[in-house]
Each structure stands twice: as structure tokens, then as C-alpha cells.
Hints:
By secondary structure, this protein is of the alpha/beta class. It has two domains: 6-75, no CATH class; 82-193, Conserved hypothetical protein from pyrococcus furiosus pfu- 392566-001, ParB domain (Alpha-Beta Complex), CATH 3.90.1530.10. Helices cover 28% and strands 30% of the residues. It contains five helices and twelve strands. The chain has helices at residues 48-58, 98-106, 130-138, 155-164, 178-193; strands spanning 6-8, 19-24, 27-34, 37-42, 64-66, 73-75, 82-85, 95-97, 114-120, 123-128, 143-148, 174-176. Strands 1-2-3-4-5-6 form a six-stranded mixed sheet, with helices on one face. A four-stranded mixed sheet has the order 7-11-9-10. The chain has a two-stranded parallel sheet with strand order 8-12.
Amino acid sequence: MNNLKLFRDYKNEDIKKKQIIYLVNDNKYEFIINNKEALISYDSQDYLEVAIKAFKSEFGYVDKIYNKDKSYYEEFDFTYLFKLPIKILQPSINIINKEYLELIKENYDYIPKIIKVCLIDDEYVIIKGHTLALEMLESGEKMVDVYLAEPTDYIKEFVYIAKEYNMTDVTKLEILEKEQYDEITKQINMMFQNK
């Protein structure tokens, strides 16, 4: 299990169909989101739980996952969605990927407008959805559906770093080319892995 290769296959996803694809050791796991449910199809059950865990870490608001014939069906705890003003959301990062921002802009009408947040020091902090929040503001949206999750490892430190760079809302995030974004993200991940 140490040599597990897991990644999200953004390039082959059909955003208009709300399709999310994970590849786990060359096995494909495809999720089609419909509100708070997801239909899953897969090549193999070998890494099904790994793929579902990755999917749920990104799309925690999905309460049910099932396959076409319902031979696989799983319900999760109900996730409450509530609205917050986008401008009050504290970023936990200070950079975003320009390529991903362009992808969101191109497919804006098809992307679920739901952001994963946590509470730190009485502030709502974005865990997942910085780029979407920025595009929503630029598109004239003022409010967004959010769901509350537990803070991830080191999120407080990420927030403090973001605040040191005066990143108090998503409009202040620095937009970087993919290569530069990937390099900085890699350095940050290595820094926190060594703790």
C-alpha cells in the first residue's frame, strides 16, 4: 500500500456532466455528482475505498454514493449547507493556480458552488474552494453555500502564513502559472511533512 498512486484526472473530466475521475494504481473511479449524491462507476473494486475517501475529502457535502445497479451503496452523515458572504471567508493559502482558475471560468455554469470551510478563532476559513470563491466574486456573486468540516492538519499555520501576507480575503490571492504554483505547493508540502 506504500506505493499507492492516487491522483485526480482533471484533464479527462467532463465538468458539464459534473464528472470527477480518480486514478488509483491505474484503476479508474468515476463519480457523477447530482446535488448531494454521486453515481460511481469503476474498473475494479480493489481501491474503491481509497477513491471514495479521496472523493469525500474534496466533496464532503455528498451524502450518498452508489453504483448503477445499487450493488454498491453507501450513505454518510447528513451535511448541512448554509450561506455565507464570500468576502468574510479567510483564505488558508496565499496562491492559486492560473490554469485551474481558467478551467473554472470556462465551466463556471456547471460547477457546484459549494465551499468547504472550518472554524478557527471564530473565523470561517476556506479549506477547499479558494479559486471558486474568487471566480464567484468576480462574477458578481456575494453569497456562497458552505459546509463545515474539521480543520485539516496544519491549517492554522497556513492561515497564519496567509495573514502574514495580508491575505484576508480571496481577492488578495496571488495568481501563479501552473509550474510556479506546483513548485511552491511542493515546497510547502515538504516543509509540513518534515514537522
